[in-house]
Here is the input.
Amino acid sequence: MDKLTIDDIAVKDKRVLTRVDFNVPIESGKVTDDTRIRAALPTIQKILQNQGKLILMSHLGRPKGGPEPKYSLMPAATRLTELLGQDVEMAPDCIGSEVEAMVNKMQPGQVLMLENVRFHKEEEKNDPEFAKKLAALGDVYVNDAFGSAHRAHASTEGIAKILKTAAVAGYLMKAELAALGKLLTGAPQPFVVILGGAKVSDKIQIIKNLITRASHLLIGGGMAYTFLKAQGHEIGKSLLEAEHLNLATNLMTVAAYSNPRKPVKMVFPEDHLIGSSIEGTDAVELASVDIPADKLGGDIGPKTVQNFKTIILQAKTILWNGPMGVFEKAPFAKGTMAIAAAVAEATGRGAFSVVGGGDSVAALTQSGLTDKISHVSTGGGASLEFLGGQDLPGVEALTKAPKKA
Ligand code: AMP
Here is the structure.
């Protein structure tokens, strides 16, 4: 990465304005999954140990541009207090005189959590005046919110341009970029990309960008049916993006001809678990590649699992994004769980594995195998865009590291 990081700047006695991604699920005022808060701890602890005055900012949910109690970051501050064993003070807003007064009173080694930046509609508009008000609270800016790096918002992009002498990446940002970057530059082969989830449309860029880098693209989940239909198979009532049938055909052609010496192998399901609805409430049956007109595919079948597994176990590099079926429903969860186990096993045998995307991470958590994976990405949209070859505005805006002599 050609950007400065938290290791390149002094934070002692400074107001360290740090963008984190504390967009966590909350129920009845309590954080129900603190993964994202834990992921920011290395950066937070580093700043506190080095006696910075830590000012945290984040968004949470999708408020409509004004304060909404259900989107308050208070529960996140409470959870962080527990994790740190140290008080995290909560500000009533993210800008304004009251917040400035709280910041002015801070001592080195203390933490202040600003209220949800999306309580101001100017945040998502990347309004320069709003960014200036945020920037006035800090001497240096740290961006550790990889999950928001694909958004050019005031707290992720505008502010970095203002505090540009010291706008640096935190450890989570650095780790995400390093892990995902490995997949784009010289990933050891075979490089197996496993894609699933609901829609082809979300994954077009990533397929296009990885088609020349991967050895295998294993396609499962709802998105497989558009490809199977394009091949002339019967897919019954399965998910179909009819407007992308041509694109699916094109992608298969590009895969076959992109590198004549070593074409990427696109592998599709050859059997499915089918039912009358994605609820999986009626009898779930096994079908071969074609699906009867009144049924839909809810999961990959055992033959497909075996085939995918054989390929995964030979991989040196693995990327997995998107579940293989409707894993939220027990009758359709087997395929996804089996793939999670195969990726974990391959990692145990020395492969470098990355799992990204909210639903695959949730599936991985369900499988209990999270700690058997080399890198689990915290950023769904951001990891998709990065792997799709796009620049992330939140990263681009950070201060460039001087070139090494
Ligand atoms: P995505 O956000 O595109 O990764 O999609 C994740 C969602 O895709 C999950 O909620 C799954 O239930 C859903 N999904 C996976 N396979 C299927 C399928 N065969 N039919 C319908 N939905 C599916």
Summary: Residues 334-348 form the longest helix (15 residues). The chain has two domains: 6-174, 186-387. The longest strand covers residues 15-19.
